[in-house]
Amino acid sequence: MDLATILAFAAAFFVFAASPGPDNMTIVARTISSGAASGIAYGAGTVVGILIFLMLAAFGLSIVAAKMAIVMTLLRYGGAAYLIWMGVKLWTAVPVVPELQPVSGRRGLLTIFATGVALNLGNPKMPLFYVALLPNVVGASLTPAHLGILVAVILAVEIVVIGGHVLLAGRARSLLRTPRIVRRVNRAAGGVMIGAGVAVVATR
């Protein structure tokens, strides 16, 4: 795998990761509503789901994963239901300025992380992405060295994408100074999360 191939994979994956969609919308909404830790926790969950599919692809199991329709559908619907539920909670929440708003505890962050994992494992586009791309990147064989390079590229791209979304959302969060503004932003973020949940269900 030469440098040109690695850069081509990085570019393709960046477009895939940075494209507007339920994951990025949820990262922004979680950061605005509950802080950077919440957005990062969800983002980390999405990365784990992405890497799981990479490992499946590395062992030639992407096609099998793509055919696990029932399991993937259950994961997708479960994660979507959680997003919608959280969106409704945000919409109806009593407005609290960020300085006084409690930070999610470890259990809350783990739940957010698990949601990110589940939604990505239920994403039917992930195995198809790898089935279409990997043969053109590594050819017929994928060595441990190649796998390590791909993991490093994915992590680097996701750090940029997730970090960028969290940073921008964090700056928006810093503008929340009155309950009236917080209420409006909570409802906007809640609407985004509800929309993300609906979008996940609508994905085919």
Automatic annotation (TrEMBL):
<dbReference type="Pfam" id="PF01810">
    <property type="entry name" value="LysE"/>
</dbReference>
<dbReference type="InterPro" id="IPR001123">
    <property type="entry name" value="LeuE-type"/>
</dbReference>
<keyword id="KW-1003">Cell membrane</keyword>
<protein>
    <submittedName>
        <fullName>LysE family translocator</fullName>
    </submittedName>
</protein>
<feature type="transmembrane region" description="Helical">
    <location>
        <begin position="145"/>
        <end position="170"/>
    </location>
</feature>
<keyword id="KW-0472">Membrane</keyword>
<feature type="transmembrane region" description="Helical">
    <location>
        <begin position="41"/>
        <end position="65"/>
    </location>
</feature>
<keyword id="KW-1133">Transmembrane helix</keyword>
<keyword id="KW-0812">Transmembrane</keyword>
<dbReference type="GO" id="GO:0005886">
    <property type="term" value="C:plasma membrane"/>
</dbReference>
<feature type="transmembrane region" description="Helical">
    <location>
        <begin position="77"/>
        <end position="97"/>
    </location>
</feature>
<keyword id="KW-0732">Signal</keyword>
<dbReference type="GO" id="GO:0015171">
    <property type="term" value="F:amino acid transmembrane transporter activity"/>
</dbReference>
<feature type="signal peptide">
    <location>
        <begin position="1"/>
        <end position="17"/>
    </location>
</feature>
